[in-house]
């Protein structure tokens, strides 16, 4: 039904805005299904997630994959994150277009001094807060949304430091109206993005497959780590992944860095082979089976 991108500086009130918007949407007559996607959904620590570029890139990938999986014409997805890079907002806009849904951006426009003060107050209350170095870096790299860009339009501006954030805030009321208004052939003030043939095929054959591969390989890797932890350095007699799936026989301890490297290589090889051969697996069990075969082969057990 719609994708809402919340953006703003760190500690600018984005999560409060997302919660108020979700609550306001639940009070309209149609009562749409609303879901908020954010870092806490995946138990991600904000300082670790923004500690360096690879970690930040991984965070954006996790959120993007979850948005891509969740988007449909029957629900409203609110992405509650910094969403500070215009290129990333464009990627989210493309997901909305591929799903054929409405799209809008809600910007929490707050002066840096207020954000810094609110971050410090959170730290004093022992609540999740940004380290000063990470905070400064995020503020420096923030790219303000511009309503002239299609991926930043329509743009609803909140001014938390001046007006606060409540359900009755003008920007939230306007966003709710935009997201829930019934459209017909005469409607001009609400834009429903239309997927192209290219985006539709990519969504089916690539995005879903890559999501399943990413999720399945991560699950296998976590099961190996857990099994090794339980074995306390002793030999493993096979890591069982469940009924109908092959087991992994490990004759030596495997560190997390090596597992991550093998996983990255497998995902890369799978994507490359799909360009000239059969498509990658689109379900979790097939992806796990392929990954286990790859691991057993690379580790000398298959």
From TrEMBL:
InterPro entries given in the database record: KTI12/PSTK, P-loop_NTPase
The keyword Nucleotide-binding is assigned to this record: yes
UniProt-listed Pfam families: KTI12 (PF08433)
A GO term for molecular function: ATP binding
GO biological process assignments: regulation of transcription by RNA polymerase II; tRNA modification
Key words, A-Z: ATP-binding, Nucleotide-binding, tRNA processing
Subunit structure: Interacts with the elongator complex. Binds to calmodulin in a calcium-dependent manner.
Similarity comment text for this entry: Belongs to the KTI12 family.
Name of protein: Protein KTI12 homolog
UniProt GO cellular component terms: elongator holoenzyme complex
């Amino acid at each position: 039904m719609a994708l809402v991108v919340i953006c703003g500086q760190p500690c600018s009130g984005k999560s409060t805005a997302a919660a108020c918007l979700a609550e306001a949407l639940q009070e309209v007559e149609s009562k749409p299904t609303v879901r908020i996607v954010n870092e806490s959904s995946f138990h991600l620590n904000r300082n670790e997630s923004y500690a360096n570029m690879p970690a930040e890139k991984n965070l954006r990938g996790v959120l993007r994959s979850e948005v891509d999986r969740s988007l449909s014409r029957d629900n409203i997805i609110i992405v509650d994150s910094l969403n500070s890079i215009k290129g990333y907002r464009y990627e989210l806009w493309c997901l909305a277009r591929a799903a054929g849904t409405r799209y809008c951006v809600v910007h929490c426009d707050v002066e840096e001094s207020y954000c810094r003060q609110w971050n410090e107050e959170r730290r004093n209350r022992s609540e999740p807060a940004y380290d000063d170095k990470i905070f400064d870096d995020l503020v420096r790299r923030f790219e303000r949304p511009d309503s002239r860009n299609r991926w930043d339009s329509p743009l609803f501006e909140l001014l938390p430091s001046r007006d606060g954030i409540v359900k009755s805030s003008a920007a939230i009321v306007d966003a709710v109206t935009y997201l829930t208004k019934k459209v017909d052939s005469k409607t001009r003030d609400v834009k429903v993005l239309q997927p192209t043939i290219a985006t539709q095929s990519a969504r089916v054959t690539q995005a879903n497959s890559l999501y399943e591969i990413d999720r399945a390989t991560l699950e296998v890797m976590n099961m190996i780590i857990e099994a090794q932890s339980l074995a306390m350095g002793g030999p493993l007699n096979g890591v069982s992944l469940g009924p109908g799936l092959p087991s992994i026989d490990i004759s030596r301890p495997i560190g997390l860095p090596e597992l991550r490297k093998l996983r990255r290589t497998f995902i890369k090889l799978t994507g490359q082979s799909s360009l000239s051969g059969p498509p990658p697996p689109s379900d979790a069990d097939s992806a796990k089976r392929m990954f286990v075969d790859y691991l057993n082969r690379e580790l000398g057990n298959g």
